[in-house]
Amino acid sequence: MKFTKMQGLGNDYIYVDCTQKIIDNPSETAKIISDRHFGIGSDGLVLILLSDKADFRMRMFNSDGSEAEMCGNAIRCVGKYVFDNKLTDKATITIETLAGTKVLQLKIEDERAVLARVDMGEPILTPREIPVDSNKDSFVSEPVEIEGRIYEVTAVSMGNPHAISYVEDVIKFPLYEVGPKMETHKLFPRKVNAEFVQVVDRKTLKMRVWERGAGETLACGTGACATLVASVLNGVADREATIKLLGGDLLIEWSEKDNHVYMTGPAVKVFDGEIDI
Which superkingdom (predicted)? Predict the structure, then answer.
């Protein structure tokens, strides 16, 4: 299997061009190639396919083999892949995902895509659609108990579910203890991506993420979008802010004009290769 390893802020995936040949069992393949000791090493597997409703279609599998609806860092890399490999000559492209069709605007330098601005669509705030097991109209700063401690959680979906809570020091926060318990909390029937956020100022937020099916990753694009939305709802951030992740920065805007969330960040190729799976 030929592949390209790419990363967006350290959130690394293995990308495979499936416009000509389909992978039979992508879930098991994701487990094999993601292993950082016996495989290639990644946060998961991304398949690039043809689409009958967009320029391309993206399927994304976590390192545990589960399929996710969407990944903000991965979709930027998909945009770079299809442009750099001349599958398209357009700088504005549409990509079909399980979370809907997304529009990417690529920044081109020396005939290569180096940056992508992604229209991530409108945030979903209704609990049953996120989903959250709640009869309320929204889930903003609601108490969630984990091992005797109460976290004030705001739930947002960006096509996949997120639970955002605020901490004093995100680096010192015990993510590996709390993250898995938040991910599998009974409130979240499809599990949840858990973001823990430190407010620096109204235009700067620091974030760590425990991703559903992958554990801690260096960055999460949909999580950064959900964090900005949650922070606006909680009155601690402006509608445009820099989200500082372990792997780097993302610029996120929640537009008042169309209610869409826009994410701008880098996409980087690491290497090409072949693996016998």
Answer: Bacteria
CATH of 127-259, one of 3.10.310.10, 3.40.50.300, 3.40.50.720, 1.10.357.140: 3.10.310.10
Tokens of 105: 């605007």
62 annotated as ligand-binding: yes
Q: What's the whole-model pTM score?
A: 0.91
Topology annotation, domain 2-120+265-274: Diaminopimelate Epimerase; Chain A, domain 1 (3.10.310)
Average pLDDT along the chain: 97
Any binding-site annotation on 79? Answer: no
> Cα(28)–Cα(40) distance, rounded to whole angstroms?
14
Could you tell me if 109 and 83 are in contact, meaning their C-beta atoms sit under 8 angstroms apart?
Answer: no
Is residue 8 annotated as involved in ligand binding?
Answer: no
**Residue 56: strand pairing partners:** 95
For the chain, the domains span 2-120+265-274, 127-259
pLDDT digit string, tens, across residues 16-68: 999 999 999 999 999 999 999 999 999 999 999 999 999 999 999 999 999 99
Residue 41 annotated as binding site: no
Band of the pLDDT at 73, cuts 50, 70, 90? very high
Active site residues: 71, 220
211 among annotated binding-site residues: yes
CA distances from 73 to 77, 128, 198 (A): 7, 26, 21
Q: Cα–Cα distances in Å, from 141 out to 82, 152, 154, 166? A: 40, 5, 5, 10
